Amino acid sequence: MEADEWKFRGEGNAFLVLTNTRDGMVYRFAKTKHWRKGLLSKCNKNEKNEVIHEEMKLVVDYMKNVMRPLLGCAFVELPVLKDIAGGLPFSESEIKGFRPAQRKGQHVKPCTIHPATLSALVMPDLCFVRGGPAFTSPTISVEIKPKKAFMHVHSTDTPEEKSLVCKFCMHQRLKAKTKQWSETSKYCPLDLFSGNRRRMKQALIALAHTPQNNLRICQDGEEVHGACRDGFQGGELCCVLQEALGVTSPVLRHNGYSKSDMLVQVFLDLILETLLYVPDQPDVTRSQAWSPRPANVQSCQNSLSQSESFKQDEVYSIPEGCVLERILSIQSRDRLDIDGIYPIYTDLVNQFKQSPGSSITSNLDGPYDQGDWLAAMSQDGCDLIIEQENPVNKVKQFFVSKTVQDCSIMVALQKVPASCNEKEVGPCVTLDGGQRVRFSVTVVDLDPKPFCKIETYHNQDEEIVNEYRETSRDVQ
Ligand SMILES: O=P(O)(O)O[C@@H]1[C@@H](OP(=O)(O)O)[C@H](OP(=O)(O)O)[C@H](O)[C@H](OP(=O)(O)O)[C@H]1OP(=O)(O)O
Ligand SMILES: Nc1ncnc2c1ncn2[C@@H]1O[C@H](COP(=O)(O)OP(=O)(O)OP(=O)(O)O)[C@@H](O)[C@H]1O
């Protein structure tokens, strides 16, 4: 493959993502220092490529055998593991200008990507609508990293604050202290998952105002709003939206609102429709496993929606089968939180020390193709059974939940020519002026988490709660 065929698409903590303009596919390359909790930086040069290949195989297996059955095949694109011959087609200095600002501050060695990193997870470029015919009009993509969308019920083992303020909002205080972001997020995940359209819209507006790494909007794959760009109401984004959505002026002249305000409203409603969309194709792989969701719609004390006149006792729910409902019900499979999981983890570590064979048979770091991970998810959720359940299964439920607490939703939107036949284009939303917009919704970043990370979670949780308490004391 030629160097000029590659474009920077994105970067996370563990992966650098490039798109290949020739095959239209996206390639996820592991960042040697950050993937799998530094495991790769511990192996020697010769081993590294082999280890990356084996670890990527595990990611594919986990997505195929655990994540896709749980989330449903309509929302999951399986990657293909490929080896790229001839090494990487770029140097770190060539991509420097594209890297997100928050990553540039990370101390990465000059060789973020080791030259021997030839394996890549290859999947369609989800900044574009999946499937269907190709159209020439621009595509807008919206990437949302929704984070943990529920609070655990208070128990004697957990700090009380954790049942009043959600993890994301609490974590903001620690992020402010460590100067991770210049501005505190106004977003609260519990609003986005509330099922109340007004709260959901408020969550989207909050994301738009303080996107951090939770919102990224691109036009044809180029970022137009996100951590690196400002100005949600600004001219640039409005021009992009108007062109991409083909919204006509009459639709935008309502109730004295400005054109750009109306355009933003149309856009937010459109995103909501896609997040609430329930695929009608029969979902053959979706697990019939136990699928709990918090019984009541929860609110976080920190959310802006607390100051609004929402009726707290009103019950809203997100439609069963939409992407938000799938994510929330899988996240809710962890009933114990890190407070309940940590003692189980330390017991298991001791047990594994005494009998190393049991560590291997537990499959906690894979393999993921034996059916045991999915079986662990189908345990009944009642408290008595949770008590009696096998500790390894409890940890598996915790990890599955953790993966989905860290995933992102990629929505791609593209207007459809009037002449186009409905069946051909796939899911569509029709705007007030009659313009049809087709879309696809996909969940990405569904990687397994390593067993040893429980130690990090435990320490991080303590830090989050301590910082929250300290800053709350300052306010009183
Ligand atoms: O622990 P959290 O909630 O801060 O989540 C981490 C993310 O932080 P953020 O979303 O910014 O708060 C973090 O994202 P950033 O690097 O901050 O963009 C990673 O996604 C990390 O996962 P991994 O170590 O790459 O597997 C995430 O770690 P996991 O907790 O998902 O293992
Ligand atoms: N299939 C895809 N199509 C388009 N863009 C993608 C795709 N996969 C990833 N990206 C982009 O690349 C970015 C980084 O990818 P990814 O989430 O895989 O990295 P990561 O290191 O796992 O992230 P994290 O820090 O959240 O763990 C994403 O935020 C997204 O913008």
Secondary structure topology:
Blueprint: E1 6-11, E2 15-20, E3 25-30, H1 39-42, H2 45-71, E4 80-83, H3 92-95, H4 101-104, E5 119-124, E6 139-144, H5 167-177, H6 189-192, H7 197-209, E7 215-219, E8 222-225, H8 235-245, H9 249-252, H10 259-275, H11 323-331, H12 337-354, H13 356-362, H14 372-377, H15 383-388, H16 391-405, E9 408-416, H17 422-425, E10 428-430, E11 436-444, H18 453-475
Antiparallel strand pairs: 1-2, 2-3, 3-5, 4-5, 6-7, 6-9, 7-8, 9-11, 10-11
Helix pairs in contact: 5-18, 8-10, 11-16, 12-13, 12-16, 12-18
Bound molecules: MYO-inositol-(1,3,4,5,6)-pentakisphosphate and adenosine-5'-triphosphate.
MYO-inositol-(1,3,4,5,6)-pentakisphosphate binds next to helix 18.
Model description:
- It is an enzyme of class 2 (transferase).
- It catalyses: 1D-myo-inositol 1,3,4,5,6-pentakisphosphate + ATP = 1D-myo-inositol hexakisphosphate + ADP + H(+).
- The protein has helices at residues 39-42, 45-71, 92-95, 101-104, 167-177, 189-192, 197-209, 235-245, 249-252, 259-275, 323-331, 337-354, 356-362, 372-377, 383-388, 391-405, 422-425, 453-475, and strands spanning 6-11, 15-20, 25-30, 80-83, 119-124, 139-144, 215-219, 222-225, 408-416, 428-430, 436-444.
- The chain is an alpha+beta fold and 476 residues long.
- It has two domains: 3-125, Inositol-pentakisphosphate 2-kinase, N-lobe (Phosphorylase Kinase, domain 1, 2-Layer Sandwich), CATH 3.30.200; 142-475, no CATH class.
- The chain has a six-stranded antiparallel beta sheet with strand order 8-7-6-9-11-10, covered by helices on one side.
- Strand 2 and strand 3 (25-30) form a beta hairpin.
- Helix 8 crosses helix 10.
- The chain is globular.
- Bound molecules: MYO-inositol-(1,3,4,5,6)-pentakisphosphate and adenosine-5'-triphosphate.
- Residues 12-14, 213, 402, 406, 449, 453, 460 line the site of MYO-inositol-(1,3,4,5,6)-pentakisphosphate (5MY).
